[in-house]
Write a structure and sequence with these properties.
The structure is a homodimer of 363-residue chains.
Chain A (H helix, E strand, L loop, with lengths): L5 E3 L10 H10 L10 H18 L6 E5 L2 H12 L3 E6 L2 H12 L3 E6 L19 E5 L1 E2 L4 E2 L2 H10 L4 E5 L16 E5 L11 E5 L1 H12 L10 H9 L9 H17 L1 H21 L3 E3 L11 E6 L6 H9 L3 E5 L8 E5 L6 H13 L1
Parallel strand pairs in A: 1-13, 3-4, 3-5, 5-8, 8-9
Antiparallel strand pairs in A: 2-10, 6-7, 9-10, 11-12, 12-14, 13-14
Helix pairs in contact in A: 1-8, 2-8, 8-9, 9-11
Family (chains A, B): Belongs to the class-V pyridoxal-phosphate-dependent aminotransferase family. SerC subfamily.
Enzyme class (chains A, B): transferase
Pathway (chains A, B): Amino-acid biosynthesis; L-serine biosynthesis; L-serine from 3-phospho-D-glycerate: step 2/3
């Protein structure tokens, strides 16, 4: 029997330690077979959204719907709630692709772009008055950078007219985002929530709905699949437009419940502690250093290390860690050979982080 | 411990009898954690598409990609491969929604519509010469009707210029569709394939790709999520645009392999046999009759029965069957009280059909 490998990759990642058990319960209890128009499914939908509301402190006035992925939500937000002009904070591959989606939809997409590994000085953003949507990637998984929550709140204060939307992939449930300061947030489940991939969660408020309705009235063609009105009409009945990933929705609710028992505050404290352990080690290591220089822009959930020893590549480091049963990610894109990326999600225990630190020390 | 219930509902339905085992293997072997950019994922993608090619006899020149659902593919086909004019055969809720999607995308959508429970005389279709896409729902899950494969082939012969696309939800793997006579086919996995929902499969040929490219060159805005070029570019590397339902893709390949061992021919013979058992019984029953009058339009995979006894409703029949551990579906929409729908998929054994027949006899 092969040894257990722990995935500290930044998504997909190690499953939350209770996830497989919940999926097996779902399989044993026919949740793969029940109708998505049944009362049983409605109860699952209701349970999962209630647990998410508690975990992420989502106001009751905000709507929660399910999609195939977070990537899908980029398009849904743009197609449903914008007509012409968007503004993007771009500092890595995912924020860049969100921006590219807007361009492909023929929006006049503006951006503030800084290199991989850097955060934003938001006062440098030249956001046009007519901007309909400001798009923030709170945690840039490709580069290990984050936008501090205070910056998001400042954006809201300075641009109250625009919809402020937050890509929270790999930020959830850690990032303490204040929903009252934003209009929409979305994520996929295979990062911090620790589920197998194949499900996205999209949260939005009535300002988004009003914007959607105004655009429809003006005659804008909104693609009908997962269009906001259809999603809402179904969500009000605790249902979905098409047959959804029922087992994923069930498991998400149960994992969120498990996290709620542990409390999100404890999860946050542990996340900060584990991140500090690794960043501290990288600071004093002879072969590594933290990629992100500015502490306030360092992601707590995706830690990226530059390899500064000429004899080491990402491949050699990854191989050495794998010998100890620890799987980390390589750098993204052009950084793939000289960086490693380490996920720090709720499922990753302090013990596995101590072990990771021990092995890194010996390199 | 509660008794096992068998889901003979027309989707989601009883899982294929090996599906849960494959999912458990996937969970034990970290397929929920592996990167969707890894060699391991590429091998899964390749395995699954190879097994599907064998099962459905898909030519090597046809592309296979994965989506969130079959509903999503309605939009993808329309948005990627049409500009103005589509033609739809509508005889139930799903074919009608495909048509509505075209209208919502501002296509000039024409249709031949017949009532629920009726098939088409395709010679009555008045398909305009400029039609870009003919949309056929081979098996109308809501009504239990099918379009004979010969009719599909006739449509191709008479309208060789239009793209001919087939919604094969609840038809796969039974329907012996000749891919050389069509341009695209799609389905979701929670029907005949017997998997938990949350995955769609889209198959298309180079005529679709050429059409997509021509429209792009003309400046058509194609929504970027799951756009055909991005899907193709990734599929060539055995990858997907966004993090997909990896466990679903793996399980689909393993279930298809299991079906290939049994052979699709045996599955087809058994499907016809089981359907004949129930249709025969309905014909001679005093409380039921087959909803679909014309034998050639009777679906082999979704059998719809009219309840003709005034003392019976769908709810009472369903309750009586559930007492024997058999779950069937109620009628769709306005037929919900006076019809039952019975799925006849590869996972449903002859034994469970004998049992169903026995119980129906006693009513």
């Amino acid at each position: 029997m092969k040894n257990k490998r722990y995935y500290l990759t930044p998504g997909p990642s190690e499953l939350y330690f209770t996830a497989a058990e919940h999926m097996q319960y779902a399989l044993r209890n026919d949740l793969g077979s029940i109708s998505h128009r049944s009362k049983q499914f409605q109860e699952i939908f209701q349970f999962t959204t209630a647990q998410l509301r508690q975990l992420l402190n989502i106001p009751s006035s905000y709507h929660i719907v399910f999609t195939g992925s977070a990537t899908e939500v980029w398009q849904l937000l743009l197609a449903n709630c914008t007509e012409q002009s968007t503004y993007h904070f771009v500092n890595g591959s995912f924020s860049s692709r969100f921006y590219e989606f807007a361009k492909e939809l023929n929006r006049n997409a503006q951006k503030l772009e800084v290199p991989f590994g850097e955060g934003f000085d938001i006062s440098e953003a030249n956001i046009p008055a007519e901007t309909e949507m400001i798009c923030v990637t709170q945690n840039e998984t490709s580069a290990g950078t984050c936008m501090p929550v205070e910056d998001i709140n400042t954006l809201r204060k300075e641009h109250p007219e625009a919809l402020l939307v937050v890509d929270a992939v790999s930020a959830v449930p850690y990032a303490p985002i204040d929903f009252e300061q934003i209009d929409s947030l979305f994520f996929s489940v295979q990062k911090g929530m620790g589920l197998p991939a194949g499900l996205g969660v999209w949260i939005f408020n009535d300002r988004c709905v009003a914007r959607f309705k105004a655009l429809k009235e003006k005659g804008q063609v909104v693609p009908p699949y997962h269009a906001m009105d259809t999603m809402l009409k179904n969500a009000e009945k605790h249902m979905t437009q098409a047959t959804p990933n029922v087992i994923g929705i069930y498991t998400l609710g149960k994992v969120a419940e498990d996290m709620n028992r542990r409390t999100v505050e404890v999860i946050r404290q542990e996340t900060v502690f584990k991140a500090a352990t690794i960043y501290g080690l990288l600071e004093r290591h002879t072969k590594f250093k933290p990629f992100v220089r500015e502490e306030k822009h360092r992601s707590q959930t995706v830690i990226v290390a530059d390899i500064i020893d000429e004899d080491y590549t990402a491949a050699t480091v990854i191989e050495k860690l794998e010998a100890h049963g620890i799987v980390v990610g390589k750098g993204y894109g052009e950084f793939k050979d000289k960086q490693i990326r380490i996920a720090n999600f709720p499922t990753h225990s302090k013990e596995i982080f101590y072990q990771l630190a021990d092995v890194l020390e010996t390199l």
